[in-house]
Amino acid sequence: MLISGDLYKLGRDEVLHRCVLEHERLAIMEEAHGGSAGGHYVGDATTHKILMVGLWWETLYKDCKDYCKVCDHCQRIGKPGRRDEIPLHPIPSAEPFEKWVIDFVGPIAPATCRIGSHYVITYTDYLTRWIEAAPTKDYTAATVARFLWENIITRYGCPLSLTNDRGTHFLNETVRILLSEFMVAHHKTTPYHPQENGTTEAFNKILSHTLTKICDVGRQDWDDKVSAVLWAYRTTYKRLNKATPFQLVFGTEVIFRLNLCFLLCE
C-alpha cells in the first residue's frame, strides 16, 4: 500500500514495513550490522534488526547473509556462533531479575590507558538475558560487592539468588555479608555442572569477540567500547526468548539510529 508516497508491506506480524529502495540498502545493512547497535552479529540477527525498525525489501535475508560474509571485521576475527548465545541447559526463572549470574572476563590485554582496566565484571539476568557489565582494575571481593550494590540491587531490587563459580573473589566474607543483609541465596557452580554458568559464559565469549572487532589498533581503548557491546547485545533478538532483552525488560522495542535515518517518526 502507498502511504505519503512510500510503498509499505504488511508483514506476518501485522506490522507495516516500508519497502526500501535499492540505493538505500547498503547503508541500512552497514548500520544494522556494524553501526552503534550492530555488534557484528551474524546475518539473521542483522536481518531482524532491520525488520524491527520497520524496513523490508524482497531479498533482505539473502542480502544480509551475503553482506555479513564479506564484512572485513568479521572475516578477520570470525563470528560467535549460535552456541555462544544459547546455553545447552538454560535454567528457568519465573520473573525478571530474580536470578542473576556473575562472572569476570579477563585479564584483557593491554591494560587501558584511561583507568588501567584489566577485567570486565558481568551480571546476567537468567530470564531476560539482560546484561550489566563494567571494566574493572581487579577482580576482588570489594569490586564484586560494590557492583552488586550499585548496579544490581539499587537498580533492579533484591534478587532471590546469585550464582557464580567457586573463585575466592565470590566466596568470601565481604560478599557473604552483603548477600545475607538482603537475603539473597548464594549458589556456587561445580566443574561437573558447567551448564549452571552457561548463560554468562555465552555472553563472555561474545564480549571478547566483539571487542576485538570494534577496538582501535592496540586495543587500549577497549574499556570505552564495553557500553557499545552491551547496547548491541541487549537489542539483538534471542531465539531462546523470541525477543530482545531490551523488549523483555521495558515492554517495547528500542529506537535505533536506523529509525531516525530511514523512517519518518509518526
From TrEMBL:
Q: State the InterPro entries in the record.
A: Integrase_cat-core (IPR001584), Integrase_H2C2 (IPR041588), Retrovirus_Pol_polyprotein (IPR050951), RNaseH-like_sf (IPR012337), RNaseH_sf (IPR036397)
One Pfam family matching this protein: Integrase_H2C2
Gene Ontology BP, a term: DNA integration
Example of a GO MF term: nucleic acid binding
Where is the Integrase catalytic domain positioned along the sequence?
92-253
What name appears for this protein in its UniProt entry?
Integrase catalytic domain-containing protein
Protein source organism: Taxus chinensis (Chinese yew)
Q: What is the lineage of its organism?
A: Eukaryota, Viridiplantae, Streptophyta, Embryophyta, Tracheophyta
